[in-house]
Design goal:
Radius of gyration: 27 Å
Strand content: 5-15%
Largest sheet: 5 strands, parallel
Shape: globular
Strand order of the largest sheet: 2-1-3-6-7
Length: about 450
């Protein structure tokens, strides 16, 4: 890695870590806790790359980006911020930041991005900065987990492209909100946003009427996998010949469209036209740590709309967090708003939460699994939870062997139980050599006794 990096962060530890890592990688580093100093260095022509925090003692790093672009067109800026919301990601993208990482960041990942930015700086000509426009202050998407941070960054990347966007996710996860956010923060935000269903396209004139309504804005096709083949064909023709004012096409689906295409439920030509960019919205059980934050958000919004002030007790918070929420964010919002209206006191109790959840479907812990859940889905959910617990940092090295050991131990113990402790039968059941089984029993410290065969 070769180049000079300007680092601006008010956290001395972060400045030290970045300085040491970048220096070892072969870079020259200038580090400061002041945006004023950073801007002076930029104005003097120093640096091939800027790594800057957002909230600084003497200003906001995002607000400096237009000035940096004006003074030094093409100078890449990587924004790092503890304000890890979708607005931060979008504002960074709109201000022409090269990249955005939420804190706490993964140092090897930041180093890779730094190397790419320096390489691009050497190879690419400077580009003019985009025009700056006023934006709303809040977006109706809430979450701080790694799953949501990845979603925010993807939304920011696809926002101002003309690629079709396919938004997939379970019912109630907020697919329509994502589509609306992409439109409202894009260059097409002053144009119409039109959602269509199969009913809007039933007759031959339906596509023409829809295109006349959207007028070059954004056209969202709702639950495309539920649309019959004849209407799917009309959508294909509409996308191929959209007329004078070409809209941005987006679609939502609860199903895996690739799998639906394989089974013939979705036309192949439609699938490939819609999947220019794919945004997968995580289920609520895949971002458990966001649940209390969402609950507080919904109570606060209800209060702003005139409802009485309410908050969840610590015990109520925990119950809300571990509930399965099969209806995802939509179900959570409805339940929390109901609690806000029916609670007898300002603090919502656990008993009141239990009363509301008692009438809800599938009241099981989020970390549990339904009887119909596939093993791979259950394992995947637990692994996602394990990654989320590290708060954006990577788990310790050696993960592959550690996970194998976690799985192998219970598998062998259960197989031994099922075969009454007979190692020959157990090895045959598992499909491994008996000597291999003995070695694994020893390595995993599995206690072997003659067991009663399970019925």
């Amino acid at each position: 890695m070769d180049g000079t990096v300007l680092v601006a962060d008010d956290d001395r530890t972060i400045r030290t870590v970045l300085t040491q890592a970048l220096t070892r990688a072969g870079c020259k580093v200038h580090a400061t806790s002041s945006l004023t100093t950073l801007m002076r260095w930029v104005g003097e022509g120093k640096g091939d790359l800027v790594i800057s925090d957002v909230v600084m003692p003497d200003g906001n790093g995002l607000e400096m980006l237009p000035k940096i672009n004006e003074d030094r067109p093409g100078l890449p800026v990587i924004v790092i911020s503890a304000q890890n919301t979708i607005m931060t990601a979008i504002q960074a993208a709109e201000a022409d930041a090269y990249d955005y990482l939420p804190k706490p960041f993964d140092l090897p990942d930041l180093m890779k991005r730094t190397a790419r930015a320096l390489d691009q700086r050497r190879r690419s000509p400077a580009e003019a900065p985009p025009e700056d426009d006023t934006r709303p202050d809040e977006l109706p998407l809430v979450g701080r987990t790694p799953a949501m941070q990845s979603l925010y960054r993807l939304v920011a990347r696809v926002m101002n492209t003309d690629l079709p966007v396919l938004i997939s996710g379970e019912s109630g996860t907020g697919k329509s909100l994502i589509a609306r956010a992409i439109h409202d923060f894009s260059d097409r935000r002053t144009l119409p946003f039109v959602t269509v269903t199969a009913a809007d396209l039933q007759d031959l004139e339906g596509p023409a009427r829809v295109l006349a309504r959207v007028k070059g804005g954004t056209l969202l096709i709702d639950e495309v996998s539920d649309i019959e083949d004849e209407i799917q064909a009309r959508i294909v023709r509409m996308m191929d010949a959209p007329g004078d004012h070409v809209p941005r096409f987006m679609a939502t689906s609860q199903d895996d469209l690739a799998a639906a295409m394989e089974t013939g439920r979705v036309r192949q030509d439609l699938y490939y036209r819609l999947s220019g960019a794919t945004v997968e919205v995580p289920a609520l059980r895949e971002r458990v740590e966001d649940i209390p934050l969402l609950a507080e958000h919904f109570l606060g919004r209800a209060e702003r709309e005139g409802a009485p002030k309410r908050w969840l007790s610590e015990e109520a918070h925990e119950l809300v967090r571990v509930y399965s929420w099969p209806g995802n964010v939509r179900q959570l919002e409805n339940a929390v708003r109901r609690l806000g209206l029916t609670s007898r006191a300002e603090e919502i109790t656990r008993a009141e939460v239990e009363s509301v959840l008692g009438s809800q479907p599938e009241a099981e812990p989020a970390l549990g699994g339904g009887d119909s859940e596939k093993l791979s889905a259950s394992v995947g959910r637990h692994l996602r939870r394990y990654f989320d617990l590290h708060g954006g940092m990577l788990p310790p090295p050696g993960l592959y062997q550690r996970i194998l050991r976690e799985v192998e131990g219970p598998l062998i113990e259960i197989a031994l139980d099922a075969t009454g402790g007979n190692q020959a039968k157990c090895a045959d059941l598992l499909g491994i050599n008996r000597n291999t089984l003995r070695k694994k029993i020893s390595d995993l410290d599995i206690k072997v006794t003659r067991r009663r065969k399970l019925m």
